[in-house]
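Appendix B. One record, verbatim.
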Amino acid sequence: MFQRFPREIRNSPPAHYTVELNSYSKLFRPEKLEKFESGLFEAGNYKWRLVFYPNGNKQDDGDGYISFYLKIDGCNTFSDNWSVRVNYKLFVLYKDNEFLAVQAEGPIRRFDHNKHEWGFGKFLSLDTLNEYLANDTLVLGAEVFVIVSTGRKECVSILKNPDGATTRTWKIPKFSALDDNPRFSQAYTVDERKWYLSSLVRTSTREKFHIFLPLDVLDPAPKRAVFAEFDLLLVDQKRHSNSFKRQ
């Protein structure tokens, strides 16, 4: 059985590497081979190996289990105080095309000059090994995702008093003669962006005007979303007051 680590069964194979251990019963008898290291594979611009103890890593309390680890390679070429943060999963083929994936608690692991390997001393119980052998073959694998900081940052906020924020008035002459074609106000700048109003007038069956009045930002290639708080006012020109308001 497995240790109590997050695990899943899935049909897709490991994304980065698999190794088939054929003639398993002959190769990995207790007196034959204590430890096996796979060939190199690359993931996240680093080179890795899989380290396999067929009869358990005694230094990691692996008696009665298979021990299985991910190891970073080429550490002697790294700079001083190097470290690599990794999210990884280790796999074993269960049956047909179903893989059992095992992931450590707190999935981010740090590989550095003090710790070259991470994995599981009690990966698979020897008592259940036959359940994972098909034609005397054991298939193991790994997915390795290196966490790299890009230095990018985004900040979302509402400015209390953005530059250029003030009340703007848009007078639409000959309003009653307008058709369904949209009209646009003059663009104005608030917080380094240009804004404008557009209007579309429609007439209902009762000959009442319905006005669509959206506020839009004039930016042909926006690099980020813009959030804005604004009021739209319709001025009663007879009483010179704001008789209609939308937020």
